[in-house]
Amino acid sequence: MPAITDSPRRRLTLFPNLSGAAVAGIAIAIFLMAFLILPVAQVLYVAFLDARTGAFTFQNFQDFFNTTLFRESFVNSFYVSAMSVVVATMIALPLAYITTRFNFAGTAAIQALGIIPLIMPPFVGAVAMSLLFGRNGSVNLLLNQYFGFRIPFMEGLNGVILVQSIHYFPFILINLSASLRNIDRSMEEAAQNLGSHGMRMFRRIVFPLAMPGYLAGAALVFIKVFDDLGTPLLLNVNNMLAPQAYLRITGVGINDPMGYVISFILVVFSVFSLWASFLFMRGKDYATVQKGGGGLSRRDLNTREKWLAWATILLILALVLSPHIGLLLLAFGTIWSFSPLPDGFTVQHFGTIFTQSTQYVWNTIIYAGTAALIDVVLGCAIAYIVIRTGLTGRKWLDYMATAALAVPGVVLGIGYLRMFHGIQLPFGLGQMSSFWGIIIIALAVRRLPYALRACMAALQQVSLSLEEAAESLGASRTSTIRRIVVPLMTGGILAGFVTSFATAAVELSATIMLVGRSSDAPLAYGIYLYMQSPAGRGPGAALGILAVVIVALGTYLSQRIIERERSRQSTISDQH
Amino acid sequence: MTQSKVGIRIEDLHLSFGDTKVLEGIQLVIEPGEFFAFLGPSGSGKSTLLRAIAGFGPTPRGRILIGDRDVATLPPWKRNVGMVFQSYALWPHMSVRRNVAFGLEERRMPASKIAPKVEAALETVGLLHLADRMPGQLSGGQQQRVALARTIAIEPQVLLLDEPLSNLDAALRVQMRRELLSLQRKLGLTTIFVTHDQEEANTTSDRMAVLDKGVIQQIGTPQQLYDYPANTFVAGFLGTANVLDGTHDGTHFITRGGQRLAVANPSANAKRIVLRPQNIRVSGSGEGVPGKISHREFLGSQIRYLIDTPDGQLIVDTLHATGHPPFDAGAEVKLTIDSQSAALLED
Amino acid sequence: MHKILKLSATALMMTSAAAFADTVTVVTSFSKDLTDPFKAAFEAANPDTTLEVVNRNTNAAVSYLQETRGSNTTDIMWASAPDAFEVLKEQGLLAKVDVQYEGIPDMIGGYPVHDADGTYFGFAASGYGIMYNTRYVEANELPIAEEWEDLKRAEYNGHVAMSSPSRSGTTHLTVETVLQGEGWDDGWATWKWISGNMNTVTERSFGVPDAVNSGATGFGIVIDFFGLSSKASGFPVELVYPSVTAIVPANIGIIENAPNQDGAKRFVEFVLSPEGQKVLLEPAIMRLPVNPDAYADAPEGFPNPFSEDFAPGAIEFDVEKSGMRYELVNSLFDVLVTYRLDDLRAAVSAVQRAEAAQAESGNEEAAALIAEARALIEAMPISEEQALDPSYTQAFTVSRADPATEVVGRQAEIEQEWDRFAVENYAKARQLAEQAIALN
C-alpha cells in the first residue's frame, strides 16, 4: 500500500486497516457476547453470591458438594446421559451400518425416517411414550392381560433414558452414517484380504475408522441429555441436575442460589465434555489421511440376510417412531384411558386447531426460518473466518458459538429476561424481553452450533485451489466467496439450515421463558398449552402432528436439493 | 517364508457390473513363482481382474484356480491372497506394528508367534525402526513398504499389487520397482502386478498380459510382446510404432504408398505392418523412401523425427552422436526401412 | 408473513397512543379451556378491547412479574393459588384498585373470598378432592377412596399420584389444609403414609389429572375443577370431596403500574359480574362460582359450596400461618417426600407387609418393631413452633427480607440436614419392618 500518498487521511479513520473479514469477525463477536456470553454470565454469577448479603462467595459450591441429593443428582444425570448414549448407539448403529454397507432398497427412506424423532418436541414424545409404554400403557396392558406381567420401560430413570435415546439417536445416526460413507473402500478390503470379516472386522477396522463421526454424535447426545430438563420433568424424575436447577430457579419467591450453582455446573460440565471430545478427536480425522476414491463397498444381501435386515430395521423403526404412532393415535382418538387403543376415532381435533391455532404455525415458520437463516449466515461467516483467514482470536469465534451447545435453554431464557427486560425498543415494539424478535435470536443462538458444524464441513470440502483459481483470474475476495465458495457449499449450507430449522421449530425450553403474548407463541408452546388441560390433549397432539409434518416436508425438500447438488458435483469428480 | 510356490489358472472368466460387461472370456495361466503383470489403459479391466482374484467386486462366472483350489466363489478372507492396494489402505488408527500384525491376529495366532513374524516382515522392507509410528507420520514410500510388509506377513500364496507405484514420485518409483522385484525373487512369491505404465511392466515382469476392453489381447514376455504384437492395440500400447496398412504378396508387404517391404515371416492375411522407429534409418541422400522432415524432438540419447512420406507421417528415432548435426525441419531425406523382422498384423 | 404486516401496523399505530390502551395483558396459569371462553365473552362485551393472554405456570408467572417489575407490561395476574397473590402483594406487585361487584359473599367455606386489603379478588371457588379413574379402579378391584385417611391403606399402594406442593400452588393448599386440619405432626404423618402409596409425585399440577385420565394411575389428589372438567371432557373419571377440605378462591388481581389499569379494572369487574360467573359453568371449565346465584343454572349433581351438606368438615383456613411457612413447607415436602419417594415407598410398603403378617400371627415382638418403624417414618426434623420461627422460615425466603433476623443456616445446609434425617429414618424403619416380617 502506498502509505505516503494517502497517510494523512487514513490516520483519521476509526478502523484504519480492518479487512472485511475482520469487521465481520468483530460484528459476530459482539453479537455472541450480547446474546450468549453476557446473558448467561448474568445468570451464572448469582452462583457466586451469598443469598443474604449479596457478597462474593464460594460457599454455595461447598454446599453443593456437601448435599447428598445433589451428588446423587449428578450421578443420576451422568448415568442417564451415558446410558442414553449406549441405547442411542444400539438404535443408530444397525441403521447406519445396514444403510451404508449394503445395497438396500429402503436406504433413503430409512435415513429420512431416522431423522424424524429429532423434529418432535421431546416433551410431546414423553407424553406419547407414556401412553404406549407406561405402567398402564398399551403395551403393558396387553402384556398384563395375556401374560400376566409388565415391563417397567418408563419407570424412573429408565423412562428418561428410553425417551431421550429415541429422541436424540439421530445425532449419532447422521454423524455415524456420514463417517461410514467416507471410509475408503480399500480400508475394508485390506482387512478382508488379510483374513478378517463380519462383526470382527466391523469392530476392529470399520468402527474405529468411523469413530470421529460417532464420537461427535455421541458427545452431542451426551450433552443434550445432560442438559435437558423437559423430559425428566414430564416423567416426574427430579433427582437429576437439570430438573433440580429448574425447580430451584423457578420456585415461587424462593431465593435458593443452588439453582444457579447447578446451572453453572451444568454449563461447565458440558463445556468440559465438548472439549474432551474435541481433544480425543484431534488428529483422528482419518478421512483426510486417506487417498483414493469410493466409500464403503456396498454388498448385496442374500435372501435370508435381507429378511434379517428388514426385521431389524422394522423393529428399530417401530421403536423410534412409537412416539409418532402414539401421537397419531392421540390426535385422531377420542377418549384414551386405561385401554390399549383410544375408544374411538375422530378428525375433530384437527378442526379445532385449524380454527383456533393457525397463528402458531405461522409464528413457528417465521421464527425457525429466520433463526435458521441467521444461523447459516453466521455459520458460514465464522467458518470462513476460522478456516480461511489468519485473524487473531478467530478460533474463539468458533469456541463461543459452539459453547451455545452447553447452555441449557432455561439458563439462556432467564439470562435474556434479566438482560433485556428494561430495554425499551423503538417503533412501539415494546420491551425487548417480551418482543417476539428476541425469541428468534434465542433460537438462532441455540441452534448456531449445528449450522456452524455443517458450514465448517462444507467449507473444508471446497479445495483452496478452486478459490485461488478464481482469484488468479482476477476475482476479488468478495466475489470469489459469492461466486465460487458459496455455490460449492450449497449442500452443506442447506443441511445446516435444515438441522437448525427442524430443531428450532420444536424447541421449548428457552422460548417458554420468552413468549410475551400467546399470539406470539410458536408451535411447541402451543402444544404445551393445549396439553395442560383435559380437553386439550387431542388438539395438542394434532398440533404436534402438524409440526412434524411441516418440518418433515421442509427437511424432505431440502434433502432433495442436497442430493441433486451432490450427484451433480460427484459426476464431475468421479471421472478420472 | 517356506510357502510352496503355487500357480494361478483362470478359465473362461466373465464379469459384469449390472449390464456392463467388464471382463470377457479371460483365459490365463500364471506359473508358480512368476512375476506377472496386467498391463492396460484405465478402464481396460486389469484392476477388476486383479480384484476378482482377491475376491472383491461382483462374483464372476468361470474358474479361478490358485494351486488346485477354485477360489472363484470364496469370500476374500478365505483365499489367502495378499493384496497391496493402490492407496496402501493403511489403517490410520493403528500403529505400523499393529497394521502388520493384523492379519496374523485374524488368523488367531498366539501373540508370542506374531511378534517375531511382524518384526521379520518389517525387517524385510527395512522399516523395523518405524514400527511404533502411526501411518499418518510416514512418507509415501514408507507407507508403501508398510503395506507390503503387512501383506507378506501373512505368508500369502499369491501376492497381488494394484498399481503399487502410482502414488510415488518418479525417482522413488524406479527404486521401489527394483526393491519389489528383488523382494519377489527372494520370497519366490507368485506375484501379479497391475499397471498402466508399460515401462514398469517391461522392467519387472517375467511375463505379462495386455488387456483392453475387458479382453486379454496378448500374453507373453515383454520382449515377445514388443517385437511381435498380436494386434494394433498391443503394438501401439507397448512402445511407439508406425503401423502401415497394405497387402501381402508372398514375399513382400506392399504399403498403400507403394513401398515393397521384404519380410521374413510371410502371412497371406497380413493387413498391416508394424515398424518400430529405431528400425528406420534416415540419410540425406542415396536410395530409399523419399520423405520430408516435419518436426524434430531432441530426446537425449536419441533424436525423434516426424517425417512426411507417401505412407503418411512416420516416426523415426536415430541415435544421437555428439558432433553430428541433426536434420532440420523441411529437409528432404531418404528412409531405409529394416522390415525383415517387422511384425505383420492380421486385424 | 403476518408478523411483517403486524410490524408495520404497530409502527402506524404509534401515532395514536390510544390504540395501545385497548389491550389488556393477562398473565395466567389457567389453560386455554378457561381463558378462551372468558376472552371471547369479555371481548364481545367490550368490542374495542383486546385481551392478550400469556400463559405461565403460577410459579413462573410470579418469577416473571418479579423479573420484569422494572418496566412492567402486564395488567393482570390471574391464577388459582392465593399464596402466590400473597407473595406478590407482599412485594408490592399488586395494585389496590376500587373494583365494583355485587352479590358475592365475604366468606366461602371458611375462607375469605377477597383480599382484605383489596389487592386481589376471588372469582371462583375451588375445593380439593380425590379424582379416580373408574376403569382403573374396576380393573384393579379397588374400593373408592373417599377420605384422605383411606389413601393411607395398604391396598392403595402404588395407585396414588399427587403433584409437588412446591410446583403447584393448588397442591400446596391441599398440603397446608391437612396440616391445619390435623395438626402439624399428624398432618405430616398423613402425608407420609399417603405418599408411601404414591407411584409418582408430578412436577406439574396438571400431571396428576393427566395421569388419572390416561389410566397411568388410579387415584389423584387434585383441585376439583381438574376432575370436573376431565369428566366433562368425556374421560372415565370421578371426583369425591373428602370431608376435610378447604374451599379456597381462585383469584385475579391488578398489577402495580399496569399499563392499562382502566381496562384491567373492566376485565376484573367482568369476571366478577353475573355474566362472567356464568362462564365458569362451561363444561371445559367447571369451576365453582363465588356468586351463589350462579348455581341456579348449574347442571345436575354440580357441587355447591354454599349448600348445607357440602364438605361438613371444611376447616377454617389460616392464611397468615400458611403464608409464613409457605417456602418452608414446600421445601420440607420436597426433601422428605418428593426427592426421597423411593426410600419412603420402600419403608411404607415394608411396614404394610409387616402389619399384614403381624395381623395374622399376632406376634407381640413384631408389633413393637412395627410401632417403632411407624414412629421413625412419622418423625419430623422440626416442630410446628420452629416452622413458624422466622429464624427458620427466613432461611428460605428472598434475601431482601429483614436482614436483622438471625437465621439458623443456609437453605442448602438445612435441607441437607433434613435429607440425612429422612434417609436414615426411612432406611431404619424399613429395616425394622423387615425384621418384624422375619419374626412371623
Short structural summary:
The complex is a heterotrimer of chains A (576), B (347) and C (440). Chain A has 576 residues and is an all-alpha fold. Helices cover 73% and strands 1% of the residues of chain A.
What is the global morphology of chain C? globular
**What is the mean pLDDT of chain C?**
85
Low-confidence stretches of chain C: 4-21
Percent of residues of chain B in beta strands?
Answer: 25-35%
Major β-sheet annotation of chain C: 6 strands, mixed
The helical percent of chain C reads 40-55%
The number of helical runs of chain B is 8
Distance between the termini of chain B: 46 Å
Widest beta sheet: strand line-up of chain B:
6-7-8-3-9-10
So what's the overall shape of chain B? elongated
Report on the structure:
The complex is a heterotrimer of chains A (576), B (347) and C (440). In chain A, 53% of the residues are buried. In chain A, α4 (68-101) runs antiparallel to α5 (107-115). Chain A is built from 26 helices and 2 strands. Chain A has helices at 3-12, 20-44, 59-66, 68-101, 107-115, 122-133, 138-147, 156-182, 185-193, 198-227, 230-234, 241-250, 258-281, 286-289, 303-320, 322-332, 348-356, 358-388, 394-403, 409-420, 436-461, 464-472, 477-505, 511-514, 523-530, 537-574; strands spanning 424-425, 430-431. Chain C has 440 residues and is of the alpha/beta class. In chain C, the strands form 3 sheets. A 6-stranded mixed beta sheet of chain C has the order 2-1-3-12-6-13. The chains are: A mainly alpha (576), B alpha+beta (347), C alpha/beta (440). The A-B interface holds A 184, 186-187, 189-197, 200, 204-205, 208-209, 211, 283-284, 286, 289-292, 297, 576 and B 42, 54-56, 75-78, 80-83, 85-87, 89-94, 102-103, 106-107, 135-136, 147, 150-151, 154, 167.
